[in-house]
Amino acid sequence: MTDTTLTPPSDTSNAPTPHKIKSILEPDALTRKRNAAEARFKIYGIVAIAIGLFFLVALLWAILANGLGAFQQTFLKVDIPLNQEQIEAAEKSVVKTSKYRAIIDGAFAKELTDANITTDMSARDLQKLFSSGAAATVREYALANPDRIGSTVTFELVASSRVDGYLKGRVKREDLVEDKNLDAAHLDLSDQLEDAGILEKRFNWAFITGTDASDSRPEQAGIGASMIGSFFMMLVVLFLSLPIGVAASIYLEEFAPQNRVTDLIEVNISNLAAVPSIVFGILGLAVFIQFMHLPQSAPLVGGLVLTLMTLPTIIISTRASLKAVPPSIRDAALGIGASKMQSIFHHVLPLAMPGILTGTIIGLAQALGETAPLLLIGMVGFIASNYPDGVAAGFFSPNSAMPAQIYEWAKRADPAFYERAWGGIIVLLIFLMTMNIIAIILRRRFERRW
Amino acid sequence: MNEMPNIEQANEMTASKISADKVQVYYGDTHAIKDVDIEIEPRTVTAFIGPSGCGKSTFLRTLNRMNDTIDICRVEGSIKIDGEDIYDPKVDPVQLRAKVGMVFQKPNPFPKSIYDNIAYGPRIHGLARNKSELDDIVSSSLQKAGLWEEVKNRLDEPGTGMSGGQQQRLCIARAIAVSPEVILMDEPCSALDPIATAKVEELIDELRENFTIVIVTHSMQQAARVSQRTAFFHLGVLVEEGPTQEIFTNPKDKRTQDYITGRFG
């Protein structure tokens, strides 16, 4: 085809001029065709990038629009006089928080009269403005600070999720028609309270630092404990998979003889990288929990399972970066009498380090976002644990992980939890970005000029 | 060693530094080197010449067992250095390579400072007891390689930042630093410009005083300029070996004559 187009068409027609001078100022048919193909290809590329960017923006927008609300929380500012007799009486009763609730009721009624707000709602109805955890907050404070008993303390009590949703625009008046928890009168009162400065929406640290809460208290649920769970899991993954993976790759790449056994191992490592993560979960359940009797729901077990999952990724990328180190460096070291191990550890490994770090961070990022294997070792479900006290407890006591926590929230019915799930995704992404930034800084330090 | 009178070198077979006897090298099923016998004299420059793929580099690399790094490579026959068989199972190739240094085709300094490039060898072989001894080794190696004046004020700069010719001389200095007895050079000037080449050749001529040098080269002019003895390889066979003068003016073998007159290769 090329030949036919290249032959000048004037050959037969014009005999006396044997060679027609071809102008390069005018592109010929073939050049035009090639240029058009190139231009088309560029357009495909731009379109592909545009589609990618569109989805990225759409994703980020969806996450931020849905999740930013979780970082804000509505609080009710109430001055509560901590009366010695009242507290003693409350501590003696069977259902202690109900007595504390009465204390809040009294204080809140006083707040209302002080602010000149009149309402015909009963104390029981007014309670619905507060989170059901409010009484516990007061009680914990009173028990933790016995010296403040007798004085009046300003509490910022968490408002109920409906009131919170109303201030965030999630709950509308028309939604409340069939709602038993709250009615329009509460919302009118909320407006008045907001004007009086008693009801206030502000940044919610408790979401970032807090622990999970039961189904009825979405306003108190936080991702902090599961963040610690994820952190300890990542520690296990990093400190197991990096040394094991790098050692295995160095052996396979530099020392192992090339034969059928090593070929088989290589093929299987590549296969492992493609095994669905839930398979690793069931393996972890069988080996670590049922056979080795390690504690269920513990970040240690989660970390072990995720290590299995991460190893192939690290091995594959480490081997690729070891292969990419020019053989001349190995020759140079061997040529002046370095042993094989010296040449690898002094020269090859430092040069392969940036690649190894890239692989490690990809593996860790995958592990951080993995939910399926955690399902099987019991790291999902309602784990409203307190923070682990100490490092050992961080590894061994039951905890959740961020993606598992997000999954938990997403499947609960209350839309307030749904908001938390999106918020959790934002925290997860920030956690991931922090990890990436650390890896990039480390990689910069290892990178050398040639 | 150094006090040995120079006259002794050329005469006797027993005086040769390296003696190869019926060396065969196989790459898998390929018979790359066939029946090579050669005596290499101490403190001379011996050049290996021949067309591409004739096996001269392969044979050079058998002299410090760099071929060991290739799995499928197999060496038969005997190669003796100072009368000791280097393929004896008792020989540790690492120790051998400290005695038989190597300079490669492409300058390959470590991506480290100039100082560390030179100091690496003495460090791993424990040649210096303290920092000042190491400093001495570095400066004397750079002096011997004729690089000292150019780099003495920037020893902490990366070795990879120098020009190609300087890099190659740095590699030679690095090889000298572990005080080898033999230095193998695999086309050391093929990546260099004529001026850098001239400098390296000059250096090789100076190094002859203290080291036995074997150099593989594609350039017959270079072989003629730097070497005292020349060996011509063709298709894995050592065709002819003798004083450089003779090989170039009066070759015994037809193939040698054809090659040096440019009929093939």
Strand content of chain B: 15-25%
Query: What's the end-to-end separation of chain A, in Å?
Result: 45 Å
Looking at CATH, the homologous superfamily of the largest domain in chain A is MetI-like
Measured as a percent range, the helix fraction of chain B is: 25-40%
What strand line-up does the widest sheet of chain A have? 2-1-3
Overall strand count of chain A:
3
The CATH superfamily of one domain in chain B appears as P-loop containing nucleotide triphosphate hydrolases
Spans of at least 5 consecutive residues with low confidence of chain B: 1-13
Instruction: Fill in the CATH topology of one domain in chain B.
Output: Rossmann fold
> Which percent bin holds the helix content of chain A?
55-70%
CATH class of one domain in chain B: Alpha Beta
Mean pLDDT of chain B: 88
Q: Give the structural class of chain A.
A: mainly alpha
Regions with little confidence, pLDDT below 50 for 5+ residues of chain A: 1-7
- Sheet with the most strands, sense and barrel status of chain A: 3 strands, antiparallel
DSSP helix count of chain A? 19
Report the CATH C-level class of the largest domain in chain A.
Mainly Alpha
